[in-house]
Write a structure and sequence with these properties.
The chain has 428 residues and is an alpha/beta fold. The protein has two domains: 3-191, 3-Layer(aba) Sandwich (Rossmann fold); 236-422, Rossmann fold, CATH 3.40.50. 43% of the residues lie in helices and 14% in strands. It contains 18 helices and 14 strands. The chain has helices spanning 11-22, 34-41, 52-58, 69-73, 96-103, 124-134, 154-159, 173-179, 193-224, 228-236, 257-270, 276-300, 327-337, 350-356, 366-370, 383-386, 390-396, 411-416, and strands at 3-7, 26-30, 63-66, 78-81, 112-116, 140-144, 164-167, 188-191, 308-312, 341-345, 361-362, 375-378, 401-404, 420-422. Strands 3-2-1-4-5-6 form a six-stranded parallel β-sheet, sandwiched between helices. Strands 11-10-9-12-13-14 form a six-stranded parallel β-sheet. Helix 9 crosses helix 11 (257-270) and helix 9 packs parallel to helix 12 (276-300). It is globular. The structure holds nicotinamide-adenine-dinucleotide. Nicotinamide-adenine-dinucleotide binds next to helix 1 and helix 5. Nicotinamide-adenine-dinucleotide binds at residues 7-13, 30-33, 36, 82-85, 97, 100-101, 118-119, 147, 149, 151, 255-256.
Length: 428
């Protein structure tokens, strides 16, 4: 068993730390956020991720949390970089946290392997290796180990990954990183660094393309009378297409797809290649988020000023508290700009939403959001909303109008209850 330092205790860092400790490794997670580390040390978990608190508690004797570099790096054979790489204004990946972490590497001459799990542009690993060599850190080897977990099912995804990709340009290094995953049920793929970095971007860009594609099909269904759920089912039965990521909706969000698609477009552009397809993927997604406004106006009239609109769900997907780039944000801001009274409810993401949009009104329950509402929009398909007592909801609303942004509700059942129901690409 090995000793690991995990740099960055966010969604990816905490899941990596917990799963690696679960596999038997000794792990210290390092973060610059003192409050986060103190909470973790006290047994709390700063994010909502099903099963994470239990996994950390179960491996508590092999996992520690610190802000102290000396504690984190003492005896660490592997250093996993799991810091955030958000978008810059230009759409490139912001690597400042990666470089800051490199500036804080231990200065001793112990042999270690630096493993980048953060999503970084192709060429970053090569640049890091040059930097390490220039600093005389020839005892620090380098590997790229992109992460593919999905928030909401992160533990399962880590332990049952479709594949573990490890890229290295030094003999034997990728194999040593891959060996850490013994106990994980996944095919291992060892590659060069640049290809490992590209696999991550290409995968996310492809998935985003699939979503924008089915959303375009949904929009054509709406004007031609076909039903996109039936169409997607028929398409997905074709093994060359597959059923996944063919759910039409109000666009993708989250901390990965928007920034990674944009970063890949920039990576190509900075290298002199115009990645035309990705421009369309991004544009379709932006327009898709806004289409809800047109649907509300269709049912309520052009003037939304003073209308109460309930948003059910704020997180970018169910089972997470993450609202980064969530469709709810665009929707809330657009509706508020129209003068609508917007009230939203989410089982776990309301605190994050209020930090981001302090003026946004969150309610204590779905029922409070629905009370007196002129329309409601299902933004995130939490089970709680699928199980809602919709007959009671009908009694609460001023006008029983449901815009189902995820095609997750039973439209016929709602219509039978007297609702005006509209999904995405489905017959009204
Ligand atoms: P996050 O924002 O949740 O966590 C990043 C953490 O790193 C924060 O706690 C921050 O305080 C800490 N940090 C920043 N600089 C630091 C430094 N110099 N030293 C120590 N700690 C530092 O981010 P995340 O969602 O976990 O994403 C991390 C990376 O993984 C990103 O590159 C992301 O693209 C990639 N990724 C994310 C997901 C996902 O679903 N969230 C999935 C796959 C890949």
């Amino acid at each position: 068993m090995s000793r690991l330092a995990v740099v960055g205790a966010g969604y990816v860092g905490l899941v990596t730390a917990a799963c690696m400790a679960h596999l038997g490794h000794e792990v210290v997670a390092l973060d610059v956020d003192k409050a986060k580390v103190e909470l973790l040390q006290a047994g709390g978990v700063p994010i909502y991720e099903p099963g994470l608190a239990e996994l950390i508690a179960g491996a508590r004797e092999r996992i520690d949390f610190t802000t102290d570099l000396n504690i984190a790096y003492a005896g660490a054979e592997f250093i996993f970089l799991c810091v955030d790489t958000p978008s810059t204004y230009s759409g490139d990946a912001d690597l400042s946290r990666i470089w800051r972490a490199l500036d804080r590497l231990p200065l001793d001459d112990a042999e270690r392997i630096l493993v980048t799990k953060s999503t970084v542009p192709v060429g970053t690993g090569a640049a890091v290796r040059i930097e390490l060599a220039q600093r005389g850190f020839t005892h620090i080897h380098y590997a790229s180990n992109p992460e593919f977990l999905r928030e909401g099912t992160a533990i399962y995804d880590f332990m049952n990954a479709d594949r573990v990709v490890v890229g290295s340009d030094e003999p034997g290094i990728a194999e040593r990183v891959a060996a850490l995953y013994r106990g994980v049920d996944a095919p291992m793929l060892t590659t060069d660094i640049a290809s490992a970095e590209m696999i991550k971007y290409a995968s996310n860009a492809f998935l985003a393309t699939k979503i924008s594609f089915i959303n375009e099909i949904a929009n054509v269904c709406e004007v031609t009378g076909a039903d996109v759920t039936v169409v997607a089912n028929g398409m997905g039965l074709d093994k060359r297409i597959g059923p996944h990521f063919l759910q039409a909706g109000i666009g993708y969000g989250g901390s990965c797809f928007p920034k990674d698609v944009s970063a890949l477009k920039q990576i190509a552009g900075n290298s002199g290649y115009h990645f035309q397809l990705l421009n369309a993927v991004i544009e379709v997604n932006e327009l898709q988020k806004r289409k809800v406004i047109g649907k509300l106006k269709h049912h309520l009239g052009q003037e939304l000023r003073g209308m109460k609109i309930a948003l059910l769900g704020l997180a970018f997907k169910p089972n997470t508290d993450d609202i980064r780039q969530a469709s709810s944000i665009v929707l809330a801001e657009r509706l508020m700009a129209e003068g609508a009274r917007v009230e939203g409810y989410d089982p776990v993401a309301m605190e994050n939403m209020q930090k981001l949009l302090p003026g946004f009104c969150c309610t204590a329950s779905a029922a409070s959001a629905l009370e007196g509402a002129d329309a409601c929009v299902l933004v995130t398909e939490w089970q709680e909303f699928l199980n809602l007592d919709w007959a009671a909801a009908h009694g609460l609303m001023a006008r029983p109008i449901v815009i189902d942004g995820r095609n997750a509700l039973d439209g016929a059942a709602l219509a039978a209850l007297g609702f005006t129901y509209e999904g995405v690409g489905r017959k009204p």
